[in-house]
Specification:
Blueprint (H helix, E strand, L loop, with lengths): L7 E5 L5 H10 L3 E5 L3 H8 L10 H10 L3 E4 L7 E4 L5 E2 L2 E2 L2 H10 L8 E4 L7 H12 L16 E4 L9 H7 L2 E5 L2 H12 L6 E5 H32 L3 H8 L22 H8 L5 H29 L6 E5 L14 H12 L3 E5 L16 E3 L3 H6 L3 E4 L18 E4 L6
Parallel strand pairs: 1-2, 1-4, 2-3, 4-7, 7-8, 9-10, 11-12, 11-14, 12-13, 14-15
Antiparallel strand pairs: 5-6, 8-9
Helix pairs in contact: 1-3, 4-5, 8-10, 8-11, 10-11, 11-12
Bound molecules: ligand SAJ.
Ligand SAJ binds next to helix 8.
Length: 421
């Protein structure tokens, strides 16, 4: 049972973060109202079903909806705390805060003295304070917190999510959380919320530090991957096996190089560093360059495929190209910002070869791959490879370990993940 003072919590935005957060809070005995503007999502959740793919989330959702602790609605209702977990997309080199401001506007009418509002969406530094300014304008009858001042009617904090898709229910509970209140009193209030379900450390800090912390974590990873990707291009030029170099270098006790790949995908690491660049363009030279290196990697891979296709064509045959994997990383069914999908779409658009696609997590061809006569999605992995002249390893899904090395004999191989290198 929830012995906490926060008995009723409204979670605004029922996506990849908001829904699991709402479900986990409800599973601890809190009454949760999940809010989403999408009526279909709301109806589905109220039937005890889910609209995203995440291990075990379906069973826990069904249980908390059935026992009445979670219900979904299209608008916020009065509650003790409000968690905002809506998307912050990146448009024209700027963070688009439309959804954050719309969520804050929807919460404003039901706020009362003593409430807590926590923003979880990945945001450029200063966003939470701008949300407070907005709330204060909408509710002049309530006193909102100010950095460096004591006292307020409604506490406000920023607390970024840091969960890895595929492990969300575990990481929500076990990952340490950074909590940045507008004031220390706000941080303490927000800490009470995360105490409901977190078994990990709750680290309190200032609001802008918390916002920057999330961006820093993903930029750190992006810079690390860019280093690996640049290294792969350098080693190729010098005729050196990059995978062996990394494996050996990582034996050094203070070296831990990440893995090269076809580029960086997903909706976080490929986006969040731009929020830092936006905030300090002149100063963010390394972070910007890392983004450019990672964004450039698919073009490099495409040049290699192009050369392999030209090689087959010079023998008079119609080239058949096998593309293994379309997801943004191994063993997930998520194609958002996937460099592998972009590479596949570009190869399909050349219109000069047969394209055999393997993606164990797709029942039909996603994106712009659909509708081409010369592009086929094939279920059996060995068949895809058998029929091809050129085999391109794009995503090292577990299932590809089943491909015997002998199946690749006499084929041109473009291995972006080092599976066969
Ligand atoms: N990748 C490589 N080489 C590597 C590691 C990853 O090329 O060595 C590529 C992947 O193939 C993928 C991309 O990078 O295309 C991102 O994958 P990821 O597993 O590094 O990260 P995400 O996007 O699934 O999740 C990240 C996580 N952040 C960090 O690890 C710092 C997660 O903890 C965050 O919660 C999430 O972003 C988020 O929501 O911000």
């Amino acid at each position: 049972m929830n012995e906490n003072k926060l008995k009723t919590i409204c979670v605004v935005g029922l996506g990849y973060i908001g829904l699991p957060t709402a479900v986990v809070l409800a599973s601890r005995g809190t009454t949760v109202i999940g809010v989403d503007v999408n009526k279909d999502v709301v109806a589905k959740i109220n039937r005890g079903e889910i609209h995203i793919v995440e291990p075990d989330l379906d069973a826990v959702t069904a249980r908390v909806v059935q026992n009445g602790l979670l219900r979904a609605a299209t608008a916020p209702v009065a509650a003790d705390a409000f968690v905002i977990a809506v998307p912050t997309p990146f448009h024209e080199n700027k963070a688009d805060l439309t959804y954050v401001h719309a969520a804050a506007a929807s919460v404003a009418p039901v706020l009362k003295k003593g409430d807590l509002v926590v923003l979880e969406s990945t945001s450029p530094p200063g966003t939470t304070e701008s949300m407070v300014t907005q709330l204060a304008a909408l509710r002049p009858d309530l006193r909102f917190p100010k950095v460096g001042e004591d006292g307020c009617d409604v506490h406000v904090a920023y607390c970024p999510e840091r969960v890895l898709p595929g492990r969300v229910l575990v990481e929500l509970v076990e990952n340490d959380r950074v909590i940045g209140g507008i004031t220390p009193e706000c941080s303490a209030r927000a800490e009470e919320l995360y105490q409901i379900f977190c078994t990990s450390s709750l680290l309190k800090t200032g609001v802008r530090t918390a916002e920057m912390c999330k961006l820093t974590e993903n930029s750190f990873r992006d810079v690390g991957i860019a280093f690996a990707n640049e290294l792969s291009i350098i080693c190729e030029k010098l005729g050196i096996n990059v995978w062996e170099v990394i494996r050996l270098a990582n034996h050094h006790p203070r070296v831990n190089i990440l893995q090269p790949g076809p580029g960086v995908g997903g909706h976080c690491i490929a986006v969040d560093p731009w929020f830092i660049v936006q905030a300090a363009p002149e100063e963010s030279r390394l972070i910007r360059t890392a983004r450019e290196v990672n964004d450039g990697k698919p073009h490099y891979v495409l040049e290699k495929i192009k050369a392999a296709v030209a090689g087959v064509r010079s023998t008079g045959a119609t080239p058949k190209v096998a593309l293994l994997g379309l997801a943004f990383k191994p063993d997930v069914d998520d194609f958002r910002e996937s460099p592998s999908l972009h590479i596949a779409e570009a190869v399909a658009a050349w219109n000069n070869c047969d394209v055999l696609v393997s993606e164990p997590h797709a029942r039909e061809l996603p994106g712009a791959l659909a509708g081409h006569k010369h592009v086929r999605l094939m279920q059996n992995v060995r068949d895809v490879v058998r029929d091809a002249h050129v085999v391109v390893m794009l995503v090292n899904h577990r299932i590809y370990k089943e491909i015997p090395r002998a199946d690749l004999d006499n084929k041109a191989i473009v291995d972006t993940r080092g599976v066969w290198s």
